[in-house]
Amino acid sequence: MSDDQDKQAKSNIKVTRRCLLTGGVGVATGTAATLVAGLGAEGAAAGPLDRPWATELGDPVGTNPYGHPSSFEKTVIRRPTPTEYSPKGYVPPMNESSWTGTPLQDLRGIITPNGLFYERSHGGYADMDPANHKVVIHGLVDRNLELSMEDLRRFPTVTTFRFLECSGNSDLIWGKATYGGQETSPYLTAQDIHGLLSCAEWTGVRLSDLLREAGADTVRAKWLIVEGADSGALARSLPMARALDDCILAFAQNGEMLRPEQGYPVRLLVPGCEGNLNIKWVQRIEVTDQPLFATFETGLYTDLQKSGKAWISSLVMEAKSIITFPSGGQSLPEKGFYQVRGIAWSGRGRISHVDVSLDGGRNWTQAQLTEPVMSKCLTEFTMPWRWDGSETLIMSRATDETGYTQPFVQQIVEARGKFSEYHNNGIQTWRVESNGEVYNAQG
Ligand SMILES: Nc1nc2c(c(=O)[nH]1)N[C@H]1C(S)=C(S)[C@@H](COP(=O)(O)O)O[C@H]1N2
Ligand SMILES: [Mo]
């Protein structure tokens, strides 16, 4: 390294240090200097020798034509659901049914990187050749359509930011599936309990445009049956009113083409509605006056109610939130100043506010929402917090623009009866112990 470069490197360090100590970091309480410990003389003495990347040339770029995260982030990956009874320690994937969760606790902002988007499949997944893929629209239409991917892309495209959540998400909040109805495990992380949730920017064509092109009889036909091309040929009934609203056939996600796991080359996106409706690898759309319900519908997710009857199809994912920091499996190094952080979402529209409680639900403080706040999309929230080192029960509660507020788990149990597998949007509690370790405190 030349003298000039050396000086430059040193002055860069100084700038960084000065910023840290004297400002830039706006905080509500205390001076910046109490936020983090200052660098001691030893820290200041650390020179380029400890940093080979500053003294030796690195590899040229271009050796990694499709980039990966830093090697220091290698634990930030999708994971299957942990279990106590499986020798492998997680629910083993089967060809008929497999899933992995998004590492929500390790992400920032609202967009899930494509490689970390949760996966849920009833017949494995396939990497289909888009050149041979067709979407057929038939039934109560003026003319049957058979659209290639090329044909599809000739329709006007739209781009929207939407979350996707499996209606089976958060079932571990009850401790049921993997813990045999026992108490839920204190060791579960946000990913373990709530990871069947992700959010992306989706690009595709409006389903309503395609129906218009086919001349669908939208008065007589109250339903669409949408079918995937995977081996499970997952099919779901979609009410016509919703199909004509904000549904799209998406071919791109976060700027690139869909991943095979997400239904490449094309999937249905039903904003705000349970993941199951969002048919991947779409190959057929039947316009009909009869829903499939119960007879042929595969992977149908029903909600048993107190009356003993079940809701056959609850489409909308109600308002929900979770704190991702501090959350299960993390630990706070020392008492002092932190930013509580989390995500909130609602299938009915925008999040209007999120409250955070630091005392097990007695007192609530409104958190700050990070812009942008978009409809049927994840919203990030934060709240400054000075941890005094005592045991703390921490929870969040979302309210959406319809005025609906996320309930306590107990309220859901009371409303529906003992146990309900799907659509669990109850408030999640984490316990910060006095040694800084954070545990799932549900149950
Ligand atoms: N064709 C097809 N579509 C499907 C599924 C499937 O197994 N096959 N799984 C559904 C379920 S249950 C969910 S939660 C979402 C998951 O989407 P993702 O894997 O992109 O996260 O896709 C839905 N669409
Ligand atoms: Mo799902």
Automatic annotation (TrEMBL):
It holds the Pfam family Oxidored_molyb. This is Sulfite dehydrogenase. One of its GO terms (molecular function) is sulfite dehydrogenase activity. Residues 122-291 form the Oxidoreductase molybdopterin-binding domain. SUPFAM superfamilies: E set domains (SSF81296), Oxidoreductase molybdopterin-binding domain (SSF56524). The keyword Metal-binding applies. Residues 316-428 form the Moybdenum cofactor oxidoreductase dimerisation domain. It comes from the Bacteria. Its cofactor is Mo-molybdopterin. InterPro entries: Ig_E-set (IPR014756), MoCF_OxRdtse_dimer (IPR005066), Mopterin_OxRdtase_euk (IPR008335), OxRdtase_Mopterin-bd_dom (IPR000572), OxRdtase_Mopterin-bd_sf (IPR036374), Sulfite_DH_SoxC (IPR030835), TAT_signal (IPR006311). Its EC number is 1.8.2.1. Residues 50-73 are annotated as: Disordered. Keywords: Metal-binding, Molybdenum, Oxidoreductase.
